[in-house]
Specification:
Blueprint (H helix, E strand, L loop, with lengths): L1 E5 L10 E7 L3 E5 L2 H7 L2 H4 L21 H21 L6 H13 L21 H15 L5 H7 L6 H7 L5 H14 L8 H6 L1 E4 L2 E5 L3 H19 L2 H26 L12 H8 L4 H6 L1 H7 L4 H11 L5 H11 L5 E5 L5 H15 L3 H4 L3 E8 L4 H4 L2 E3 L5 E3 H4 L5 H5 L2 E8 L2
Parallel strand pairs: 5-8
Antiparallel strand pairs: 1-2, 2-3, 4-5, 6-10, 7-10, 8-9
Length: 427
């Protein structure tokens, strides 16, 4: 994965081997120094090689096999490009701040669990992946003798130069600039292929805020449209929604069976198969307080990746419990929920009719049928001024929000929350 390229000889100094990565999206990515390389080599970061960037979307787009690690490396590359551009416009970013920003974006996804956001709805509750990322950064900082202190301050938006945080987390952060291009590349959905290089060339700083020079406005319009298209064609694709709900239900069923087994005589039935890390999350209610008070929570979390769940599903597909085996086998063999999407909520009578059909077909109790049918809603908006506006900088030094500056896009429509309702059920 890592190639080596010798630097130019120095005066009687030991040769330092510069490491590079050949990335399919951006080409060669440089690892600038030993500090950054030590983060990449850390077990917490290497774990991201075992977590797919798009979770289970490869069941919709088979090429979407890229990992959280490749995304983080791509985001680091774009961070480096952005810092280079900002320096070329006479903005001061010290070498220490550069290293901290690169480290911060490398570690921003450490808190993701298997299948990305699915874990946040089932095995872990009341804590976001960003909060878990922060806990892992803080633990690494202790191990590394405080070298990550500035990176953590940038991540928490506590560093005086707030534009550095915007590069990590904002409407135009390098995280989004990478994942849109990378996800577009691997899914084959070409509408998401944004001009990230052009956007970075147009970045500037005004009053400690990240802005875009006026000649880059069309690239921003394309970026906002591409993001909208990627959400509805990829991230919120109806089959992806149905598959995610199916996975959530199988994990809920596994937790329910684990609780039942614990309530009964533990000798009466074997423990539900799972890796030690997965066992911990099946047996315990793990929330933010658990992570703060139980050191085991973080230790088991970093041992958990996609492989734990796929291994469990393979064994669960042969389990005596009909619901668990049905859902597990469906995920393994891509026999997925059917899904219907409407602009209005489904009527209770229509849902009851679907439940009755499933009950007759599978001979299951009403409680068991709950795992085979789900109704929910999805809400999204592509641009929010309240969140972190995209400001356009003009030659006279004035700025305008993209909503005012754009004469092509209806930003009000992009900002409007879109709500859809869906019903998915076993076929």
């Amino acid at each position: 994965m890592y190639g080596r390229c010798a630097q130019h000889p120095g005066n009687n100094q030991s040769q330092i081997m510069r490491k590079i990565i050949n990335d399919p999206v951006f080409g060669f990515i440089n690892i600038p120094n030993d500090f950054i390389f030590s983060i990449i080599q850390h077990p917490y970061f290497q774990r991201l090689t075992r977590i797919k960037q798009l979770g289970i979307i490869h069941l919709v787009y088979p090429g979407a096999q890229h990992t959280r690690m490749s995304h983080s490396l791509g985001a680091m590359h774009l961070m480096n490009e952005a810092i280079t551009q900002l320096r070329s416009k006479d903005h001061v970013i010290t070498p220490e701040e550069e290293d901290a920003a690169l480290a911060c974006i490398l570690m921003h996804d450490l808190g993701h669990g298997p299948f990305s956001h699915v874990l946040e709805d089932t095995l872990v509750t009341e804590i976001s992946h960003e909060e878990i990322s922060l806990l892992l950064m803080e633990k690494m900082n202790v191990e590394m003798g405080g070298q990550l202190t500035t990176a953590i301050a940038i991540f928490k938006n506590e560093y005086p130069k707030h534009f550095l945080h915007q590069l990590v987390s904002g409407q135009l952060d390098v995280d989004r600039l990478d994942y849109l291009r990378r996800d577009s590349f691997f899914t084959g959905v070409t509408e998401g292929n944004i001009g990230s290089a052009r956007i970075i060339k147009m970045l500037n700083i005004h009053n400690d805020r990240l802005v875009v020079e006026a000649k880059g406005i069309y690239s921003i319009e394309n970026f906002l449209m591409a993001r909208r298209l990627m959400y509805w064609q990829v991230y919120l694709h109806k089959t992806a929604l149905a598959t995610e709900k199916m996975l959530i239900n199988v994990l809920k069923r596994a937790k329910e069976l684990t609780k039942c087994q614990a309530r009964n005589d533990k000798q009466s039935a074997p423990t539900l198969f799972a890796s030690p890390a997965l066992q911990y999350f099946l047996h315990n209610k793990v929330d933010k307080q658990t992570f703060l008070n139980d050191p085991q929570a973080l230790e088991h979390f970093v041992d958990l990746d996609d492989n734990d769940l796929w291994s469990a599903l393979k064994v669960w597909s042969k389990h005596d419990d009909k619901v668990l085996s049905l859902l597990s086998l469906g995920l393994l063999n891509r026999r997925l929920y059917k899904i219907e999407i409407e602009s209005q909520p489904f009527s209770p009578d229509y849902i009851a009719e679907k439940r009755d059909r499933l009950a007759k077909r599978y001979a299951l109790s009403p409680d068991e049928i709950n795992y085979l049918i789900s109704s929910d809603e999805i809400t999204t908006n592509m641009y929010s001024e309240a969140d972190d506006s995209i400001d356009i900088l003009y030659k006279n030094g004035t700025t305008k929000n993209i909503a005012e500056a754009s004469d092509m896009l209806n930003i009000q429509l992009l900002s409007k929350k879109v709500k859809k309702y869906y019903l998915c059920y076993s076929s």
